[in-house]
Amino acid sequence: MERFKSIKVASVLGIVGNLFLLIIKGIIGLVTNSQAMIADAFNSAGDIFSSVMTFIGNKIASKPSDDDHNLGHGKAEYIYSMLISIAMGLMALKIFFNSFVSLINGNNYRFSKWLIVVCIVTILVKLSLYFYTNNLSKKYNNLLIKSNSLDHRNDCILTFFNLIACILTLFNIYWFDGVVGVVISVWIIYTSIQIFIDSYDVLMDKSISDETKKKVLDIASNHPEIKKINHFNSTPVGYRYQISLTIFVDGNLTTFESHKIADDLEKEISSKVEEIYLAVIHVNPIDLKNTKKQSKKKRYSS
User: Fold this and answer.
1) Smallest Cα–Cα separation from 278: which of 216, 192, 187?
2) CB 98 within 8 A of CB 181
3) Which residues of 38-64 are buried (b: 16+ CB within 10 A; e: fewer)?
4) What angle do CA 259, 260, 262 make, to 5 degrees?
5) pTM
6) Architecture of the structural domain at 210-301
7) For every one of its 302 residues, what pLDDT tens digit does the chain have, with 9 covering 90 and above?
8) Which residues pair with 286 in a beta bridge?
9) Separation in Å, CA 8 to CA 4, 18, 247, 274, 284
10) So where are the chain's domains?
11) Among 46, 50, 86, 185, which is least packed by CB within 10 angstroms?
12) Which CATH superfamily is domain 2-203 in?
């Protein structure tokens, strides 16, 4: 399937790109004792882990449904996204502590032109990865690749501030380096919380959005044979939903006629609403004569 192949390529590119950045950031950060650069190196290590988790989660999610997993393996995307968020949060807390200590105690690291070079290279690599993964995220609505895309975007912004910290050292301003390290860690924590909440919502079977529900109901309302709808339920299946609802039709219709209405509606919903993986519709008969009599009685009594 094209969706899973594209995400596989993106995860491999993320691993290779972040491994390259980890090496150059780590070497330059340790040589110059720049806490901001060291924090950036840890961030790249976390990005490698995220890309590996994306690769594994995507591989599992791509498996078709079987006897043990009737609805497929789509939720693997969200399990691994949650693992990514937890790892990101723990790493960010460590970075925050080290940067805060550096800020309090002072940190006069040695300026090097290679700090500037590494920052520029990082921004170029991350910006390229961001545009690529952001496009895939929008195209396939995949939380795993979305988390990677957010990582790449954040890295571009944070490395830009790291670049400013490097330049300021030329004017003997060193405190900004510790501040950038703290900002990087806080940003990572915020992003990890966002990813965790998104993953948690799906794993806890959060209901379909009101907007998508309205799309479904609007399609059903275009069928005059359907007199009433209730018992609307939804269950996330990976990045899409399985829905079930009950429709009420004229009880005088034959079993074949009433079920054909339901079958046609199921196909129409699945084809027109991208968020729907499967629509299951139950049919109930309704006595239109009694309904009309009751409505008349209400009018006369009023």
Assistant:
1) 216
2) yes
3) bbbbbbbbbbbbbbbbbbebbbebbee
4) 65
5) 0.63
6) 2-Layer Sandwich (3.30)
7) 677 788 788 888 888 988 998 898 888 888 877 766 777 787 788 778 777 877 887 778 777 777 777 666 777 777 877 887 887 788 778 778 877 777 777 655 566 788 888 889 989 998 998 998 888 888 877 777 777 787 788 778 777 877 887 788 777 777 776 777 788 778 878 888 888 888 888 777 778 888 889 999 999 989 889 988 988 988 887 667 889 999 999 988 888 999 999 999 999 998 888 888 889 999 999 876 665 544 444 433 44
8) 250
9) 6, 15, 41, 22, 45
10) 2-203, 210-301
11) 86
12) Cation efflux protein transmembrane domain (1.20.1510.10)
User: Where does residue 231 rank: exposed (0-12), middle (13-18), buried (19+ CB within 10 A)?
Assistant: exposed
Query: Could you tell me how many residues make up the chain?
Result: 302
